[in-house]
């Protein structure tokens, strides 16, 4: 039989695309190389009784319009907001973050009265940028070199968005897109620990340091989501991030779609310049009227399509696409909750994110190691204990700890990671936590360590880049993944892209998958049932 | 001279007040049935999340309670209420409502049958004169016992686990059943009931058991993140569950100033409760006539596009003619959808060409939205764990 669409990869974007297509009446099949689904939104039980969020661990970007369209609530998805966080300072102090505005202001004032009041202005300015960028997430970028009516209309729309801003705001926007987060924060704040905390979102998943130009935009990418209208807030998926892809799979199956796991695509079949299906590693062939790749752009075109089928310029651009890995992760099963003596008794911060990097300088030193081809000797870690809120991931009283780590390079001093490197990376991270939480290591039952090597091998993320390509300005909007191919199409007819390599980029957001489905359906002259983007209130 | 000091403390403190007061970080209180109740303890989002994710505790003491006893208790309640109280088994609970002679709602509530001749009515409004007058000719006693019972509502997917940790094994308790359990040398009653549309229990005790029980419950529930919740969070959950509240979604006939305000059970989506076969009951004749002629109003659940809550909005047919009004609305965190409960003229109950006009507040300025709505089933949110047997253990 011939499917209307074969989707390569059961990452959340592939599943989102598949769901929309199936709901519009297409016969779809999702093919996943692993025995499990989810890509980087995955939850596996690697230690008995403990469910991990093996890659992504918090949700904010995932568009509520998609959750609603695809009835993910009915299929079991629940997003849980979490409470604030803390940065531990060398020397025993801390900076706390609270959901309560007044508590937060008073906490910031302990560090700087000026910064406490500046924070509101800063938050307003960032929210302005969010309001600008949000409507673009759920639209196909226009092709600036095309004269087709739709492209012209979309370009006009973009121009109107810009035109609606004052001259001052336009200048601010351009500055913000091109600045380093360090310079940007210096314009508002004086306290090193407050700046150290706020800079975090600018480096997550990025091979940039906080002092690199362009890092400010990355911050915006992490702020433009929301949890139930709280812009910039993050939450957990109940049951781990895999709950998102589990709910998507259930929604897909309810709409008649299929998912095949356990054997990956070896080759995308191309005949007369058109994609006609896929050939799996186990030899199976699956025919499809179109093939939609959820893999990153490099993997799709450099590994699974024969180069002779592609224009040379396209291949050159794909090769040049920046996809450098910068992150690693530790997933830890804990016998008991860790204790952080710096925190006051009963403080809610333990239910939020915990950091040890108390200044931008320290963060930048970590990046220096990455540039030299080594993982950071004093890494930045985003430590979270989802089980402080989510009761479903471990037995009561036990905990799952997720540690997102920067920086970790794709290669160690130019050569591949070895097991010894990986163990060294692990110990560096564990020791850092232990130094703020004595006795922590004694509570560790199991650790899953993921360096860019494991991320590439398991999830298929080239070079271990968590966003399927860096979120720098040269690789965004109509330049993502490469100029001329931002509309989810490729040089090969009927071969499409729907992963995070495409606009608007990485994170568990679903927007690339949704936009790709919209384009596929438009071309097939089918009407999608899709909500328009919600307003930012 | 008397020792009267009511005017200094017009709102009664419930037996849990020492605990709820110390937990109420924001001092955000509101009156409910003459009691001081927490609207929010500190963070409405986290309190709501406790209902859907873990275990939440709501102080239920202000609920008005009447005990009905005597050989004619079942007959009396069957005359009074629209549902069949005689069919309610001992140890059972049901949701019910009662009307005036015109078939207009006076209140809705839960009825607990503690013994063959022993019932408890739990409701929102006060009805003693009506209940006593209706008792004429029946061998029953009706007593207002609101202050003799202290009650907590424990709701959330971990509630059965928390009770088990507290030494109260409720795994055999089916939805709408209750049982007695030993506690600290005495007993408490637990019913598998609630107002959240989730797994949950209501815990009934005497006022002197209140504080020791609270402490015991919170100690046992700590590993599951048990949390006291205020009315704001509960209201959000009840909207998701599609439940109505007297004086919020309809005006009880005994309080209505305007004659067109009262609504019948048929008009409020409670027609399914009416037992037409059980013999005469108050309002029966009027309700039969309404059934034959058709109702004027209908209660509907609405799905509203976008992310703006439609609270207090007016509904239009074809964007032009008024068709009804929203009585409760919210952005539902569970559904990621904007939902509303509304009264509409019965001919619009199908929802065809129905629009809602929302005034959305954007930095001190209202923006007018006219959005097409869809009539959808209530409950909006209906997780399987609500009814699962045995109850989910987390
Ligand atoms: C460690 C880590 C932490 C992160 N933390 C967060 C976070 O907290 N919050 C957040 O929002 N985002 C986070 N991200 C980013 C986010 O998870 C990703 O951007 C997103 O999940 C990518 O989704 P996708 O569907 O585009 O692609 P992927 O998830 O990469 O899916 C691609 C799929 O294709 C499959 N595949 C690959 N090759 C083949 C083949 N040959 N045949 C068949 N199938 C194949 C893969 O196995 C995979 O399932 C994190 C990512 C990582 C790695």
TrEMBL record, chain A:
<dbReference type="GO" id="GO:0016491">
    <property type="term" value="F:oxidoreductase activity"/>
</dbReference>
<dbReference type="InterPro" id="IPR002937">
    <property type="entry name" value="Amino_oxidase"/>
</dbReference>
<protein>
    <recommendedName>
        <fullName>Pyridine nucleotide-disulfide oxidoreductase domain-containing protein 2</fullName>
    </recommendedName>
</protein>
<dbReference type="InterPro" id="IPR036188">
    <property type="entry name" value="FAD/NAD-bd_sf"/>
</dbReference>
<feature type="domain" description="Amine oxidase">
    <location>
        <begin position="14"/>
        <end position="521"/>
    </location>
</feature>
<comment type="subunit">
    <text>Interacts with COX5B; this interaction may contribute to localize PYROXD2 to the inner face of the inner mitochondrial membrane.</text>
</comment>
<dbReference type="Pfam" id="PF01593">
    <property type="entry name" value="Amino_oxidase"/>
</dbReference>
<comment type="function">
    <text>Probable oxidoreductase that may play a role as regulator of mitochondrial function.</text>
</comment>
Automatic annotation (TrEMBL), chain B:
<protein>
    <submittedName>
        <fullName>Glycine cleavage system protein T</fullName>
    </submittedName>
</protein>
<dbReference type="Pfam" id="PF08669">
    <property type="entry name" value="GCV_T_C"/>
</dbReference>
<dbReference type="InterPro" id="IPR027266">
    <property type="entry name" value="TrmE/GcvT-like"/>
</dbReference>
<dbReference type="Pfam" id="PF01571">
    <property type="entry name" value="GCV_T"/>
</dbReference>
<feature type="binding site">
    <location>
        <position position="202"/>
    </location>
    <ligand>
        <name>substrate</name>
    </ligand>
</feature>
<dbReference type="GO" id="GO:0005829">
    <property type="term" value="C:cytosol"/>
</dbReference>
<dbReference type="InterPro" id="IPR013977">
    <property type="entry name" value="GcvT_C"/>
</dbReference>
<dbReference type="InterPro" id="IPR029043">
    <property type="entry name" value="GcvT/YgfZ_C"/>
</dbReference>
<feature type="domain" description="GCVT N-terminal">
    <location>
        <begin position="43"/>
        <end position="278"/>
    </location>
</feature>
<dbReference type="InterPro" id="IPR006222">
    <property type="entry name" value="GCVT_N"/>
</dbReference>
<feature type="domain" description="Aminomethyltransferase C-terminal">
    <location>
        <begin position="299"/>
        <end position="381"/>
    </location>
</feature>
<dbReference type="InterPro" id="IPR028896">
    <property type="entry name" value="GcvT/YgfZ/DmdA"/>
</dbReference>
């Amino acid at each position: 039989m011939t499917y209307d669409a074969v989707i390569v990869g059961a990452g959340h974007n592939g599943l989102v695309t598949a769901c929309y297509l199936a709901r519009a009446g297409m016969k779809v099949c999702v093919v996943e190389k692993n025995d499990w689904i989810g890509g980087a939104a995955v939850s596996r039980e690697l230690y008995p009784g403990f469910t991990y969020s093996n890659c992504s661990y918090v949700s904010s970007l995932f568009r509520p319009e998609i959750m609603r369209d695809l009835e993910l609530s009915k299929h079991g998805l629940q997003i849980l907001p979490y409470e604030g966080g803390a940065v531990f300072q060398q020397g025993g102090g801390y900076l706390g973050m609270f959901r309560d505005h007044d508590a937060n202001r008073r906490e910031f004032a302990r560090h700087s009265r000026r910064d406490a009041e500046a924070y509101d202005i800063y938050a307003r300015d960032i929210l302005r940028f969010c309001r600008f960028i949000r409507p673009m997430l759920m639209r196909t970028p226009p092709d600036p070199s095309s004269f087709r009516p739709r492209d012209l209309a979309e370009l006009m729309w973009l121009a109107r968005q810009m035109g609606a801003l004052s001259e001052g705001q336009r200048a601010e926007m351009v500055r913000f897109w091109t600045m380093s987060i360090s310079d940007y924060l210096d314009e508002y704040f004086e306290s090193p620990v407050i700046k150290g905390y706020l800079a975090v979102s600018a480096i997550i998943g990025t091979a940039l340091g906080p002092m690199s130009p362009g890092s400010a935009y990355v911050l915006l990418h992490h702020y433009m989501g929301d949890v139930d209208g709280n812009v910039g807030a993050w939450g957990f998926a109940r049951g781990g991030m895999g709950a998102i892809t589990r709910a998507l799979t259930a929604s897909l199956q309810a709409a008649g779609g299929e998912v095949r796991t356990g054997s990956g695509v070896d080759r995308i079949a191309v005949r007369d310049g058109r994609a006609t299906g896929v050939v799996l590693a186990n030899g199976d062939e699956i025919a499809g009227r179109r093939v939609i790749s959820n893999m990153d752009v490099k993997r799709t075109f450099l590994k699974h399509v024969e180069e002779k089928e592609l224009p040379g310029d396209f291949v050159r651009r794909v090769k040049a696409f920046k996809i450098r890995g910068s992150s690693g992760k530790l997933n830890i099963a804990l016998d008991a909750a860790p204790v952080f003596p710096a925190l006051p008794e009963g403080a809610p911060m333990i239910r939020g994110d915990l950091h040890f990097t108390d200044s931008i300088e320290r963060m930048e030193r970590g990046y220096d190691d990455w540039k030299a081809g080594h993982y950071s000797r004093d890494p930045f870690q985003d430590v979270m204990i989802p089980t402080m809120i989510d009761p479903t991931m471990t037995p009561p009283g036990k905990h799952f700890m997720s540690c997102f780590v920067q920086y970790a390079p794709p290669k160690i001093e130019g050569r591949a990671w070895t097991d010894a490197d990986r163990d060294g990376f692990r110990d560096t991270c564990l020791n850092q936590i232990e130094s703020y939480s004595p006795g922590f290591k004694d509570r560790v039952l199991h650790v899953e360590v993921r360096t860019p090597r494991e991320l590439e091998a398991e999830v298929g993320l080239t070079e271990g880049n968590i966003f399927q390509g860096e979120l720098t300005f040269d690789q965004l909007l109509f330049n993502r993944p490469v100029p001329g191919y931002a509309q989810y199409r490729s040089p090969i007819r009927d071969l499409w892209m729907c992963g995070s390599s495409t606009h608007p980029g990485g994170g568990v957001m679903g927007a690339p998958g949704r936009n790709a489905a919209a384009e596929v359906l438009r071309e097939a002259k089918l009407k999608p049932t899709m909500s328009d983007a919600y307003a930012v209130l | 001279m008397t020792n009267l000091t009511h005017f200094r403390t017009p709102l009664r403190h419930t037996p849990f007040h020492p605990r709820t007061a110390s937990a109420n970080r924001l001092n955000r209180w509101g009156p409910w049935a003459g009691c001081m109740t927490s609207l929010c303890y500190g963070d409405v989002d986290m309190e709501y999340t406790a209902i859907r994710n873990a275990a939440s505790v709501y102080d239920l003491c202000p609920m008005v309670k009447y005990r009905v006893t005597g050989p004619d208790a079942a007959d009396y309640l069957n005359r009074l209420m629209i549902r069949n109280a005689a069919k309610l088994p001992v140890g059972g609970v049901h949701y019910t409502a009662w009307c005036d002679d015109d078939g207009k709602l006076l209140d809705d509530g839960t009825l607990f049958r503690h013994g063959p001749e022993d019932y408890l009515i739990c409701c929102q409004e006060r009805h003693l004169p009506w209940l006593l007058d209706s008792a004429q000719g029946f061998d029953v006693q009706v007593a207002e016992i609101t202050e003799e019972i202290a009650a907590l509502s424990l709701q959330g997917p971990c509630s059965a686990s928390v009770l088990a940790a507290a030494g109260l094994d409720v795994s055999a308790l089916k939805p709408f059943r209750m049982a007695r359990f030993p506690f600290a040398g005495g007993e408490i009653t637990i019913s598998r009931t609630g107002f959240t549309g989730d797994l949950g229990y209501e815990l009934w005790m005497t006022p002197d058991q209140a504080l020791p029980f609270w402490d015991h419950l919170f100690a046992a529930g700590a590993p599951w993140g048990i949390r006291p919740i205020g009315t704001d969070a509960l209201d959000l959950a009840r909207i998701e569950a599609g439940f109505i509240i007297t004086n919020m979604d309809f005006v009880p006939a005994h309080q209505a100033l305007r004659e067109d305000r009262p609504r019948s059970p048929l008009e409020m989506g409670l027609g399914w409760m009416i037992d037409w076969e059980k013999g005469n009951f108050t309002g029966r004749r009027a309700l039969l006539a309404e059934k034959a002629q058709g109702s004027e109003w209908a209660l509907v659940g609405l799905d509203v596009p976008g992310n703006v809550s439609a609270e207090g909005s007016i509904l239009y047919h074809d964007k032009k003619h008024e068709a009804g009004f929203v009585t409760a609305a919210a952005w539902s965190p569970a559904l990621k959808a904007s939902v509303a409960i509304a009264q509409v003229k019965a001919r619009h109950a199908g929802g065809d060409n129905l629009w809602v006009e929302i005034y959305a507040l954007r930095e001190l300025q209202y923006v007018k939205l006219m959005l097409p709505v869809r009539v959808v089933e209530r409950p909006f949110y209906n997780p399987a764990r609500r009814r699962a047997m045995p109850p989910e253990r987390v």
